[in-house]
Write a structure and sequence with these properties.
Elements (H helix, E strand, L loop, with lengths): L6 H23 L5 H28 L2 H22 L5 H20 L1 H20 L7 E3 L5 E4 L21 H13 L4 H32 L5 H10 L7 H29 L4 H12 L5 H4 L14
Antiparallel strand pairs: 1-2
Organism: Natribaculum luteum
Protein name: Archaeosortase A
EC number: 3.4.22.-
Length: 311
């Protein structure tokens, strides 16, 4: 039997983590000496444990190599961030603040039932509308998650006999929370922050719609049922051949392109809110141990303090 961590445990742990990050933000706002650093350092340790607890879920249930690797990597990276903060790298308090805001955006959507229901079922309706633009109208019925989010393709009329349903991860709220947190954490004029957030959310919504339609059609109609791919899925993943198109479309093509899209959106957002570069420079330092000047790397049209470009 595959080991898994109960979602109730990770939900509670997530609230504890975000509560600790929010406390560090409040202590910094109150200007309480070194307390914000110490509290934020502890929050990063718990944050790493949280991601470690999700590894079995991503490995056994989601079967996503990208998410499994990222969850595993999050523990040492979080611990390293905690050490850097504890030793006095105060700039990481801005990154900690960004995580706090990310959590405040994402966790209510994840844990409050009526918000979660609205997000999932609205996303499913929009994806169904997208399918209709390509001549498919399967209808929506209740999925295994209990929401009206399953595309009701007739298994006797499709190639694989399978269909898909929308879950929370398909709504794009996670990516929206990332940019919302980054933008909220930095000091910049409200007008530019609002413009950057609206731009990011709009692009994420559109790309997420395309992704859901792509996966929703690829799975039942067997777009990736080629023999080499079927062999890999059945031999190395132990999955039935009929799941090949879903796994290829979702776990490999969809998630890989999502990472590429996040990088691209980040590049465009810093053109609107260049103050975000300060946070990104700290992220790169944690990842590589090297200091970077992204303002210089991105050219003279961007200044990390939002001021006039370099001449």
């Amino acid at each position: 039997m595959a080991f898994s961590v109960p979602s109730s445990f990770t939900d509670v742990l997530a609230w504890v983590v975000i509560g600790a990050f929010v406390l560090s933000v409040l202590l910094e706002w109150l200007d309480v000496a070194d307390a914000p650093r110490y509290v934020a350092s502890a929050a990063w340790v718990i944050f790493g444990v949280f991601w470690l607890a999700l590894v079995p879920h991503y490995y056994y249930h989601v079967q996503s190599p990208i998410e499994t690797i990222l969850s595993l990597a999050a523990l040492p990276l979080s611990l390293y961030t905690a050490v850097l903060l504890f030793r006095g790298r105060d700039s990481l308090l801005v990154l900690s603040k960004a995580v706090a805001f990310m959590g405040l955006i994402y966790l209510p959507a994840e844990t409050i039932p009526f918000v979660r229901t609205w997000l999932i079922e609205t996303t499913a309706s929009q994806a169904h509308w997208g399918m209709e633009q390509f001549g498919y109208s399967p209808g929506l019925v209740e999925g295994a998650n209990g929401y009206q989010s399953r595309f009701d393709f007739d298994p006797d009329e499709t190639v694989t006999g399978r269909t898909t349903y929308i879950v929370m991860a398909c709504t794009g709220i996670g990516s929206m929370a990332i940019f919302g947190g980054l933008i909220a954490a930095v000091k910049a004029p409200l007008r530019r922050k609002a413009a950057g957030f609206a731009f990011a959310v709009g692009i994420i919504w559109f790309l997420n719609l395309v992704r859901n339609v792509f996966i929703g059609l690829a799975s039942p109609w067997g777009w990736f049922q080629q023999e080499p791919l079927v062999y890999v899925v059945t031999t190395y993943l132990g999955e039935p051949a009929s799941r090949t198109s879903f796994l290829v479309a979702h776990n490999y093509i969809g998630q890989t392109l999502s990472v590429v899209a996040l990088v691209g959106i980040t590049y465009l957002v810093v053109r609107i809110v260049p103050e975000v570069l300060v946070v990104l420079e700290d992220v790169l330092f944690v990842l590589t141990g090297t200091e970077y000047d992204l303002e210089d790397a991105l050219g003279p049209s961007v200044r990390a303090d939002g001021g006039e470009p370099k001449r």
